[in-house]
Amino acid sequence: MWMTRVLSASLLMLGLAAAPAVADSSPSPSASGDSAAPAAAGTSFRTATEIEQGRTATANGSAGDYLYWSFPADSGQRPTVKATVKLPGTHAAETWQVDVYDGLRRRQSCQYGAQIRTAAAGAASVDLTCVLRTVRAWSEQWANDPLPGTYYVRLTVTELTTGDLGLPVDTELRVDSKDIGGAAAVDGSLAEPLVPGIAVRSEAQESQSESGDSSDSAVLSSIEPDDGWSSGWWSDRWVWTAIGGVLAALAGIGGYALTRGSGRPSRVPPGA
Amino acid sequence: MITSKRPAAGVCALLAALTAGIVFPTAAVAGEPTGETAPKVDLVVDVSGSMRTRDIDGGTRMAAAKQAFNEVLDATPEEVQLGIRTLGADYPGDDRKRGCKDTAQLYPVGPLDRTEAKTAVATLSPTGWTPIGPALLKAADDLDSGGDSGTGSKRIVLISDGEDTCAPLDPCEVAREIAAKGIGLTIDTLGLVPNAKMRQQLSCIAEATGGTYTSVEHTDELTDRVNQLVDRAADPVVTPVATQGATECAGAPTLKSGLYTDREEFGQQRWYRVEVPAGRELRASVSVAADRAVGPSYGTLLRAVTVHGREIVRGEAAGNGRTDVLSTGLRYPKPERDDDSDGDKPAAEIVCLQVTNSFAPASGVKTTPGLPLELTVDVVDGPSNASDVASFGLGRGWWLLGALILTGFLAGLVWGWLSRWRLAVWRTN
Fold first, then answer.
1. A213 falls within a domain
2. Region B396-416 average pLDDT
3. At residue A1, does pLDDT exceed 50?
4. CATH of the domain at A197
5. Domains in chain A: how many in total?
6. pTM for this model (two decimals)
7. Integer Cα distance of B212 and B194 in angstroms
8. Which domain holds residue A38?
9. Which chain A residue has the Cα nearest residue B200?
10. ipTM beyond 0.95?
11. What is the tens place of the pLDDT at every residue in B20-64?
12. Mean pLDDT across B227-240
């Protein structure tokens, strides 16, 4: 009896824990609006504009600029970066490219999506997409698997005629994530997400709390998901394993009952 | 396994923090901005004779520039120190030597008095030559002077309508040398109604310092862009600390967590050292910028090597085509010490970081100063390593359920049979 109580209690807890996670995985665009979405882009890793997932960031630039944004990606997410470049009225053919780098500035491969595209002469816009690999909580140090932390997006034109250099372009960038969930839940975790400058930041915070100085200082990346970095212990593997345990117990009772027949031993005469 | 490691890691981290605090009590954290130095912007405007041309929205280029300046001066954020420098404003004659020295500070870099600045702008009238190179050098001095060497961001915004008329001083090389001084200066260029040669020259100047180039055909474009650039200067940004890597690990500078900058020539290698205490993780990333015309294929390699020369881990990147930087990074978690020796100082390992690049200079490009190199170093707590592929070794999926159900069912059967057998045995006895 206590077994079922414990199991049902733990299942209930798991359900409660899962509920906010499920709610967060599908952000509604109307809830927050695009009012806070940045309308500028940085020009280097150092000055990359921080954006949130699920918001459309815009930026005006010139053809030839290297535009940088950064966004947070947590474990279990598979981010998709979509960029749209609106080109000026008349131009020759030009090739645009979107690259994604992780917090260690390592280039991350796109699984699929048109990462490089050539706009024909006079085309009004060009759309680029990059679907990253699933972000894992841990990987071996020699691998360059995507890890939780800051991701940088670089958007630039790679081939253009000199006549088009410096012409104004409008860009839009949006990052959305698919929640892969427990299928990507690996063991192990990083002590700190892969956010550049995080060691400096924590040292600065320590010294600030000691000296009582609370002035805002620039940091390389102050990025963090809305609901903080996941602690990494939760995954739906707990539910699967628990359900498996319950089903195994039920199957065990079933198997046991099967050997007992219909409740009374057949050889015992009725009325004994 | 994991839980048993945690307290040890915490103790080591604490010890490391304590020892670091004792050894370097006053050392400023690298890359930390001081916050007091205001961002500075110097607008360098071309007042050469060609600015008289009436081809921007029906007015002269000079009129467009003046109108844009007035709007920019109104919109400049409070904290930005803005200055204005002219080139070609004073000498109308034909003497090339004099014409090429013609650059003057119209409004000094400092706290902005909008009325004064606007009055000064109103006096401009198109006059002389286009000495871009000398003007840039002077503008860099404007920004670098004033007592503080300044860690705030510094920007030169160059507005010109013609290419430099003062060869052989190549403004592009001037820009590169200014950038190499390590005062963290960016030059953005705007070309008014540009031609092909001017586009190339102005974008070369911009690329040499990590800036941007924009072609301008309308007044509002000019206003928007200059406003954007001034705002960009106002954004707080971490200023890298200049360092100089050695040619081998011995004698290389020891770096702490932070952001560093250096110069690396073509084919050169740079070494740095980082102390990584046991149980901590080293994260390093490096960007090598192509600030001049380079060959079409290139690469960057970052290696973490022990003092004895054994490679621990490497990050490599290669690419081709147009690029601003090429970057790569690596992680090295130093394992906990296995022996529980009661050493009061955690064993720190010296890790040597070697940076090499395989950029090739395009023909006719100067190879000095070296390519700008940006290095981030973070030493953080070590990860808790995986003891299984799956999270906590838990299972998932229909195969797991099937296997568990089957096992449970078989166990139930066996248990049932066993108890029947025992009952039968008990009966017969």
1. yes
2. 95
3. no
4. 2.60.120.380
5. 1
6. 0.84
7. 15
8. 27-230
9. A162
10. no
11. 433 333 333 444 444 457 888 999 999 988 888 888 888 899 999
12. 87
